[in-house]
User: Fold this.
Amino acid sequence: MTTIIEKIRGLINDNLANSSDFYTYESRKVFTLTESNVSASTVKLFKNGTEVVSTGNWTYSATTNKITYTAALVAGDLIEITYSAYRKYSDNELTGYIKAAITYLSVYKYKTFTARADVIIPTPTEAQENLIALIASIIIMPAIKSYRTPELTIVFAEGINKEEKIDQSISQYAKCLGMLDYNAIQDVEYFNE
Assistant:
């Protein structure tokens, strides 16, 4: 699902933004980050201007969005935490939209997928991931006007609702792949015996 989440973020323009939080240590070694939806791999901690590696010195919990400092601190130490965060949606929220998107695929009789934890069964192709990401982005931002992938380009008519856009996307996608399959068959040479 990670790949589809990245595609959705691109479609809805939910990109990482850099943030910094500053604290003066008094007595509590737990620091809450001001932004939610933090990319855990981007978190860095500086004590009095010097970076402190996380191994054994501090931990970050994505669940609580807090850093717990485990090494020694002295009252008055300056703590700076830098990180990148998504401004709009968490991965969990986008996973919910992905599940809704695969439900639409089933309802519109395209294909039935099942979402289990962080896995979609059967595994979607790259083109199917693009379609799932498109449907999820339409659910999130129904005002989307057009969409382009390597497989197809869709321009939505003014005034159509979310369901009509989803229906059009699935129909055009299925038609496009059908044409690709037909063209591939046309390129095969047949020999009479």
Q: What stands out?
A: The longest strand covers residues 16-24. Residues 90-186 form one domain. Helices lie at 2-12, 91-107, 126-140, 162-186. Residues 162-186 form the longest helix (25 residues).
